[in-house]
TrEMBL record:
Keyword Iron tagged: yes
InterPro entries: Dps-like, Ferritin-like, Ferritin-like_diiron, Ferritin-like_SF, Ferritin_DPS_dom
Cofactor(s) required for function per UniProt: heme b
Protein name: Bacterioferritin
Length: 181
């Protein structure tokens, strides 16, 4: 049997201390308040992305709209899942998820888009995905080993954002050349 770095009796005693902190123990190595703030910014980003994709889903028109709109809806649902993951993590860290519509767009990394042109919708969504990819890559690097759980959440979201960007690039490539200009 492997030896623990700390004996079990000591671990149990430490676990009983500050029990109200839930999963945050003295072993937590990040700036918890800053991590909560960063998570709330990412939460705002995911909510804005959900809303943008939903708008694009409902307003997409034209001969190619059905397939593109289906992709928008799938992405909207996945962005909502990302928002839920982040909100849950914020609560685990002892924070409060900020869903305030008054400051949503100022806290978000991505912008809301109300384009009505199908190609512009795809391009704006691709830009937003690329912004999220860059932001979340920096966050993963910043978290390092200080908060492995939050880091894994961002890595999971990042992987899906990269998939979204690839999907959108593929949509642009499949559209007739005269539309995609």
């Amino acid at each position: 049997m492997a030896e623990f770095l700390t004996d079990m009796k000591t671990l149990r005693e430490r676990a009983r201390q500050e029990i109200d902190k839930g999963p945050v123990t003295e072993a937590y190595g990040a700036d918890r308040e800053r991590v909560i703030q960063v998570c709330n910014e990412a939460l705002a980003t995911e909510i804005v992305c959900t809303l943008r994709y939903k708008r694009h889903y409902f307003t997409a028109t034209g001969i190619h709209a059905e397939a593109v709109a289906a992709e928008f809806l799938e992405h909207a649902q996945e962005e909502q899942e990302h928002a839920d993951l982040l909100a849950e993590r914020i609560v685990q860290l002892g924070g409060e998820p900020d869903f305030s519509p008054d400051t949503l767009t100022t806290r978000a990394h991505a912008e809301y888009d109300a384009s009505l042109d199908l190609v512009e919708m795809i391009k704006e969504d691709l830009v937003a995905e690329r912004v999220a990819i860059m932001s979340y890559t920096e966050i993963v690097q910043w978290l390092g080993d200080g908060d492995p759980t939050t880091k894994r959440i961002f890595e999971r979201i990042l992987a899906q954002e990269e998939e979204h960007a690839d999907d959108l690039r593929g949509l642009l490539e499949r559209l007739p050349r005269d539309l995609a200009r």
